[in-house]
Structures are given as C-alpha cells and as structure tokens.
Amino acid sequence: MPRILAASVFSANSGESAAFSRSSRMLILLLIISGICSGLRSGCFAMANTILVKRLRRSLYAYLVFQDISFFDMETVGSLTSRLGSDCQRLSHVIGNDIHLIIRNAIQGTGALINLLTLSWPLTLPTLIICSVLAIIFSIYGRYQKRAAKLMQEFNACANNVAQETLSLMRTVRAYGTEGEEVERYKRWLDELAFVSIRESAAYGLWSMSFLTLYRFTQVLAVLLGGICIMNSQLSPEQLTKYILYCEWLIYATWRVVDNSSSLLQSIGACEKVFHLMDLLPTDQFLSQGVKLQRLMGNIQFVNVSFHYPSRISQVPILDRLNLAIQANEVVAIVGLSGSGKSTIVNLLLRLYQPVSGQVSFVLLIYYVSPYHHTGSMTAVCWQIYMDGLPLDELDIRWLREKIGFVGQEPDLFNMDIKSNIKYGCPREVKDEDIEWAAKQAHAHEFISSLPHGYQTIVDNDLLSGGQRQRIAIARAMLPDPAILVLDEATSALDAESEHYLKGVFHGLRNESRSKRTIILIAHRLSTIKTADRIVVMDKGQIIEMGDHTELLQKGGLYSRLIGAQAKSMA
Ligand SMILES: Nc1ncnc2c1ncn2[C@@H]1O[C@H](COP(=O)(O)OP(=O)(O)OP(=O)(O)O)[C@@H](O)[C@H]1O
After folding, report:
1. Residue 455 — φ and ψ, nearest 5°?
2. What region holds the ABC transporter domain (predicted)?
3. 565 secondary structure, DSSP code
4. What integer pLDDT is reported at residue 383 of this predicted model?
5. pLDDT band at residue 269, thresholds of 50, 70 and 90?
6. What number does the ligand 1 atom closest to the CA of 538 have?
C-alpha cells in the first residue's frame, strides 16, 4: 500500500500520466477489496460472537443448575445472574474480538519493525525505545485496571442484588415505607462503583495522555532525524517517506496491542468468576446411576443422623443424632418450635443436603443387611437414612424425587399457566382430566375454573392469593401420585374452609384407590395434625416426644404446652 501510494505520488509529479492512472486504478481496486474483506470479517466476527455468547451462557447455566444446593446458600442471585449476563458477554468479547485484534496488530507491528530495521537500524532505535516506554507504562496501568475491573464487577453485582431484592419485595417496602432507605442502599453500591470507576477513568486518561505525547514525539523525532539524514545524504526522500510511515505504523500497532490488551485484562478481571464457576464440579448426585426399585413402599428410617448446614459449619448441629422410623402409609406430623430442624429433616429426605455425623465414637454400630446388595454381605453403618431398607444415597436420585411429592413453605410457582404449573416435573404423560383430578384434590379446581382463562391463566403474584398459590402447589405434588407426600407448612396460607377440606383429603389420599402413600406433615397450625397416626415433637434438633394427639396431651410436655398456647391465642 505505501509503495503504491508513493509510486502514484512520484509518477504524478514526474508527469507520467499512464503509470499514474494504472496506480490509481489498482489503488481503487485494492480499496474496494479491502472494504469487502473488512465488511465480511466484521460480519463473521459479529456472528461468531453471538454464537459464542449463546453457548457460553447455556453451558454456564447448565453448570449452575447442576451445582449442589449448598452452593446456592452461599451465592447471591444477583451475582449469578450478572455472571450469566454481562460477564459472559464480556468473555465472548475477549475471545471474539480482543485476541484477534491483538494478533493482527502484533503482526502489523512486527512487519513495520522489520521494514524499519532494513531501512536503517540506528534510526529504528529511538522508535523502539519509545515503544518500550509505552509498554512499561501500560504494564503499570494494566495491573491497576485489572484490579479495578474486578471491584467494579463485584459492586455491580451487589447493586443488582439490592435492586432485584427491593423490586421483588416491593409490597413489603411499601408497607414499611422504606422506599427512601432502599434507594439509599442501592445508591451506596453505586457510590462504591462510581468511586472505583472514576479512579479507573482517571488512570485511563493518564495512560492516553502518555500515549498521545509519545506518539506525537515519535512523529517529530522521525521528521527531525530523517531530515538530518537527508541533509547528510544518508537517506533519499522516498526512504524518508517510508521511514515516517513505518514509524507511525509501529507506534500505532504498539498502542493498539496494549490498548486491546488492557480491554482484555479488564475483561479477564471481570470474567475470573465465570472461569471459577466453570471449574466447579456438578453435584455428584447426578454423576452416578443409583438403584431404581420396582415400587417404593414409603418406609423411611433416620439412624443417628446428625447435620449442620455447610454455610454454618462452626455452629452447633441442626440435627443431633436423630433416630426416626416412619412406616409405609403412615401419616406422621412433625411439630416443634421454630428453628428446631423440622424442614431440615425434609431437606435430607429429598437429598438436598447430605447428612453428616461427627459423633461416630459415641454411636453404637448398627448392622444391617440390604436385600438389594448383590453380594448380600453385611454392611456396617453408624449413621444413614434408609428408604425401604436401602441407604438413600444408593437410590437413583431422579427416580427418588419423582416418588416424593413436596410442597414447601413458600408455594414456589413458575411464571407459566396454571396447567403447566400443576404438571411441572410430572414424569408421565398427563391428560387434562388428571390435572383436574389433582386440582380437585387440592380444592383448587373451583377457583381455577372461575378465572377468565381457567387452567390457561398465567400465574403471577398479583392475580392469586397466597392460599390459591398453595393449593396449586399441593395439586402439583399430588398429580404424579407419589409414594411419599411431604407437606412443609403447606396449609399455613389456606383459609379455614380449604384447610378443613384438605385435612380430609390428606387422609383420604393414603387410602385412595390409586395407591397408598406415606404422608409427612410439618405444621405450626396444630389443628391440621390432630388426626395424624403419629406426632413427632422436636426441639433443638432432637426428638423429645412422640405419640398420637391424646398420648402427647396426657404427657403434658412441649406438645401439650403448644396446644394450650394455640388454644389460648384462638380464644
Ligand atoms: N440453608 C440454610 N443454611 C444455613 N442454615 C439454615 C438453612 N436452612 C435452615 N437453617 C437453619 O437451620 C435451623 C433449622 O431450620 P429449619 O428450617 O429446619 O427449622 P424449622 O423447625 O423447620 O423452622 P420453622 O418452623 O421456622 O420453619 C435454623 O436455625 C435455621 O436458621
């Protein structure tokens, strides 16, 4: 290109019009070709980038979804969603753009340097020194920028978290009149973000100033040194033109390399967490294929089970050597003060967490022969949860979860229509009649039918009351006809009439023709559990009383005190 440019300029000056027009035609042709190539290249890179972002986000999402549940206790939703969104976008920018620009400019710079050295190495030396100074300044700035990028990413995630929390809890914010405080909380993170961002911008300004000064200095130096060489007849005017052009190329390429490296470092700083997440292994529950029984009867046994949440290891165990046996088709209610560990039992049953036992030395060994072991050998076990006599962790996890219907304290429904919510996770094909059957069992059919779009109504918080959401969640748990039904405070938001019907439904269900089932009820409202076959009373992670309603009342322990307190508050 510079050769053609120089040829056309020189030929025009010498009046060789034919050579000039040939050079001009070639120049125009080259411009068109280079335009087409650049357009194609940009288009290809943009497309590659889009595909890359999609793949990155999909695989990172898959990594997250298969993580152990304790991972979600320690990470915030805001930070995970920002990893999935902006960080993946940045990472793909690094791979699709920065690296390619760095390589291209490095090749251009090397070419210019070789040409300069061929022209005159003593003249090349000052330009090389300037390029090295540029690289040193950048390495200092780059290190700072990487740190700043990491901080900015963290503050951004915190700000997102606050916004997400406040906007999703807007009713509570309005009820407590804390709009101002929430704006202030968000602003605090924005202030932190702005503080780092302003300092980073100032550093960028200093870096740009250094570069531009050195760039202009190179131009002046090239003209000065070149001029001296021409006066001493060491260079021809054509060589001077080349010298100035190559100097500009070299310094420009150096700038582009370090500038793109800076963007690369910034993105790498921000994307370290993405790499970290991708390094995590999925929960081993999904890695091994466990045993699938022909039929789950619903016998459950907790043997010396101790547990503490991974995020609170240093504290006292939430469950302390718990022993509990539940027979198939039994209705067992678990009651106790708040925080006594009732929901934790369910978490362990669903294998959301793994039980631990730090108390092995105090525990007698229980010998147990599993009929499912191929060898039939005796297995020494000191703590375990058994399902139909088989250790829980030997069962296929997906199969197990299909067999357990679960309604949690918060009826978590998805932003889809009611029908899809009811059949959510159901392992078999279901007909509309099955969905209606489940809704009727949960006393939800009547209110669903009265909605303008019936079962096609999209679930959203404003449309449905807490009790209605809870009934849909109960219908969802009942639809697959589970062998074990777990209701963790599932009636807390129901009105008295629905609750009354549901009490009958729970008991009807276990003797229902479809199949029999084990039911575990966790309830604060003790009126719902009076008719349970057995009531388990918990305190501080231990079972302190067990029996039916009448037996426990006669005992005069915690259960009778709780009943008394509730009766008093009702009165
Ligand atoms: N994911 C978690 N991470 C850390 N600690 C937890 C977690 N879930 C519960 N805990 C703690 O474990 C203890 C027992 O909680 P659990 O939910 O089992 O009690 P609970 O008897 O069901 O209480 P409630 O009746 O109020 O629902 C509590 O102190 C609680 O703070």
Report:
1. -70, -10
2. 300-565
3. H
4. 73
5. low
6. 21
DSSP string computed for 272-307:
HHHHHHHHSPPPGGGTS--B--S-----EEEEEEEE
Q: Is 72 in the pocket of ligand 1 (CB under 6 A)?
A: no
Other beta carbons within 10 Å of 274: 20
Q: Which amino acid, one-letter code, is at 462? A: D
Distances (CA, A) of 47 to 92, 373, 429, 537: 11, 54, 39, 61
pLDDT at position 12 over 50: no
pLDDT of residue 360: 34
Atom from ligand 1 closest to the CA of residue 340? 21
pLDDT tens-place string over residues 77-97: 767 877 788 778 777 777 767
193 against 488, higher pLDDT: 193
DSSP secondary structure letters along 33-82: HHHHHHHHHHHHHHHHHHHHHHHHHHHHHHHHHTS-HHHHHHS-HHHHHH
Q: Is 343 in the pocket of ligand 1 (CB under 6 A)?
A: yes
For 294-311, what is each residue's pLDDT tens digit?
888 889 999 888 888 887
- In this structure, which residue's CA is closest to atom 29 in ligand 1? 339
| Ligand 1 atom closest to the CA of 336, numbered from 1 | 21
Is the minimum distance from the CB of 412 to ligand 1 under 6 angstroms? Answer: no
pLDDT at 420: 92
Are the beta carbons of 306 and 359 closer than 8 angstroms? yes
Contacts for 534 with CB less than 8 Å, ≥ 6 apart: 326, 330, 331, 332, 333, 546, 547, 548
341 lines ligand 1 (CB under 6 A): yes
Asked if residues 70 and 280 have their Cβ atoms less than 8 Å apart, the reply is no
339 within ligand 1 shell (Cβ under 6 A):
yes
Contact partners, residue 531, CB within 8 Å, separation at least 6: 331, 503, 507, 549
Burial class (CB in 10 A: 0-12, 13-18, 19+), 485: buried
Give the highest mean pLDDT range of 338-352, 363-377, 510-524.
Answer: 338-352
Alpha-carbon distance of 543 to 128, in angstroms, equals 79
Residue 344 Cβ < 6 Å to ligand 1 = yes
Q: Give the distance (Å) from ligand 1 centre to CA of residue 522.
A: 13
Residue with tokens 């040194």: 225
408 lines ligand 1 (CB under 6 A): no
3-state secondary structure of 425: coil
| pLDDT above 60 for 358 | no
Tell me the C-alpha distance between 478 and 473, whole Å: 9
Which residue's CA is the nearest one to ligand 1's atom 26? 338
Distance from the alpha carbon of residue 554 to the mean position of ligand 1, in angstroms: 29
Nearest to 94 by CA among 306, 245, 267, 250: 267
